[in-house]
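We give this protein:

***
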Amino acid sequence: MLKIGDYNTLKIDRATSVGFYLTDGQGNDVLLPNKYIKKHFKVGNEITVFIYKDYEQRWIATTLNPWIKINEFASLRVRSVSDKGAFLEWGLEKDIFVPYREQSIKMKEGFRYIVYLYEDELTNRLVASSKINKFLNNENFDLEPGSEVDLLIFETTLLGFNAIINQKYKGLIYHNEIFQEIKIGNKLKGYIKNIREDNSIDLSLQPKGFERLEQGAEKNFKLPARTQRNIVSYRR
């Protein structure tokens, strides 16, 4: 079965004038256009490709590596805005569409936003959303205090920075426990500090017991002004 918006390992079935047709061995095939064919590819080879839909909504394979795949979060830049929504760069020729109904705030050209990529059930198209919280679910996780995790910073609050944990869950790093500059879109290593009864997660950027600062440094540490308000977009 072919997986759209994701990497697939497929067999090169046949060569045509427009490219190679790849098969999953279950009767499904997809075109790899000539511009993506590498010199060492031959009929019969198994190769790994990314599958998405082109401008005419045809399934297409590519050897390019996009900056996000289906059911994941990433920081993407707005290339253009239309009367229907925004179009984000993601490393492939066809930009990713974000309809206005899926924008937490109105997107602006040139700004970056944290978005989630998914397949729209009505149109079967890959689309993105910046309404991050509805795609995070702090249930049925196997995390425990002290676990090292991957973090993607996606917003600030009065309490601290909210982060996406392992592309699935939501956690909070408190302002008074941050001793380095943090920006929306940063990818960091972090640690589970505490899991509360309601499954909300407290995070730390240092492993338990690790002391970085001299006594009293926390008292003298001042947060940059921009961390004291909610931010969901930024230029870079």
